[in-house]
Amino acid sequence: MRRRLVVAVVALVLATVTAFAVPLGVAMTRLLESRALDGLQGTVESLALVLDVTARTCGELQLRVAQVAPDAAEVTVVGTDLLVVATTATRTPLRLGVEEVAEATTGRVGRDVGDGRLAVATLLTTTVCGRPLVLHASTSDAELRRSFVVAWSSILAVAAVVAVVAAGVGAQLARRLARPLEALTGAATRLGDGDFSVRAPRSGLEEADAIAAALDGTAERLGRAIERSASFTADASHQLRTPLTALRLHLESLELAGADPDGVAAALAEADRLEATIADLTALTRLDAAEVAVDLGALVADRVASWQLAARESGREVRTQLAPVPAVLVRPAAIAQAAEVLVDNALRHGRGTVTVRVAPARSDDAEGIVRLSVEDEGEARGLERPGGRGLALARTLVAGEGGQLTVTSGADGTTAAIVLPANRG
């Protein structure tokens, strides 16, 4: 978390600095360009004033251009038809700008930057050559480009310094923010693992401390609730087991007194089932109930004797078909209780033989999904059916183990199936 937050803050700082540096550089470029043109325009306007005042003939104008033109600029006097009247160039004036000359003929000063030059043109008032004249001056933009380099270098250097300082400060702030969040994450993880004594540390940040206080309150309330629940479960288990033990003793006394052995055996079997149910449900209430690798075939084999005994009381039969399957990672008590509910429903609401199968969910999937199904020859026992005993609980138990419980019905009877992913560990 800390590294991602630091990277995000530094990236934001760099983006912000760039967003300011680039427009500043563009503005500085335009300012330098405007200043360079202003300087050349001042030179051209001064030269135009000299020519307008002192040149009395066309020849004198040509002489004056050669005398007063600055060395750094190439000066040309042209007619509005672009025919050269006078120039300081040793050959035809280079890149005489048509745009700035055309602008000058309207009475405005024509200015242009491009093609490696600065150019300015202005209209002369003298008519000594018999037609309107335009004074055009151009110079290399090498100095301007050097000033661009200096300006951009300065801006980028300042931006780099600001970015480094801001990134350092931002990284420090990000680390300061990340530390309390990491501490809160650790406290929340311990709370999720069942440590209700955990207390989140305080950092001095108002928002983080508010979350820490809320987390502490949650841990305290959950701890009290779990403690009360555990106490109630222990008491309830004890209260159920005490009369169950007494019942077992009475049944054994009846057996010794000559009571019907089959009836006593059936009653003892039901007592065993009830005791196993109490043990399973008590185990499910414990937060530390661990998931273990369970062989569904072995789980069914451990329970089938009690199911068969219950089935014989109603003239029914429970059969098993147990194919080799990989283990599933579940809480054994949850799946045992879900299977108990399905078999009990089949015996109470179904007809005919009850078949408990354990097999891969598909014939082409020997390792991925495991299926425990309970089949009978009766009608559907869906959750909506009045009298459908315990199916909602069974569905919840199976879903809690990462599986799914389905109930389907057809002409041949009803099938309730628990489908679970195999343990790939």
Mean pLDDT: 79
Radius of gyration: 48 Å
Largest sheet: 5 strands, antiparallel
Secondary-structure content class: alpha+beta
Q: Percent of residues in beta strands?
A: 15-25%
* Helix percentage range: 55-70%
- Shape designation: rod-shaped
Strand order of the largest sheet: 2-1-5-4-3
**What's the CATH class label of the domain at 2-147?**
Alpha Beta
- CATH architecture of the domain at 2-147, by name, is 2-Layer Sandwich
Please name the fourth-level CATH homologous superfamily of the domain at 2-147. PAS domain
CATH topology of the domain at 2-147: Beta-Lactamase
**Poorly predicted runs:** 382-387
N- and C-termini, Cα separation: 29 Å
Can you write the helix and strand succession as a string?
A: HHEEHEEEHHHEHEEHEEHEE
Describe it for me?
There is one protein chain. With 425 residues, this protein is an alpha+beta fold. Among the domains are: 2-147, 2-Layer Sandwich (Beta-Lactamase), CATH 3.30.450; 290-421, Heat Shock Protein 90 (2-Layer Sandwich), CATH 3.30.565.10. 57% of the residues lie in helices and 18% in strands. The chain is built from nine helices and twelve strands. Mean pLDDT is 79; it is low at 382-387.
Brief overview:
By secondary structure, the chain is of the alpha+beta class. It has helices at 2-54, 58-68, 98-104, 142-192, 206-256, 261-284, 296-313, 332-349, 391-400, and strands at residues 74-79, 84-87, 110-114, 117-123, 133-140, 292-294, 318-322, 328-330, 354-362, 365-376, 404-410, 413-421.
Describe how the helices and strands are arranged.
Layout: H1 2-54, H2 58-68, E1 74-79, E2 84-87, H3 98-104, E3 110-114, E4 117-123, E5 133-140, H4 142-192, H5 206-256, H6 261-284, E6 292-294, H7 296-313, E7 318-322, E8 328-330, H8 332-349, E9 354-362, E10 365-376, H9 391-400, E11 404-410, E12 413-421
Parallel strand pairs: 7-9
Antiparallel strand pairs: 1-2, 1-5, 3-4, 4-5, 6-8, 9-10, 10-12, 11-12
Helix pairs in contact: 1-2, 1-4, 4-5, 5-6, 6-7, 6-8, 7-8, 8-9
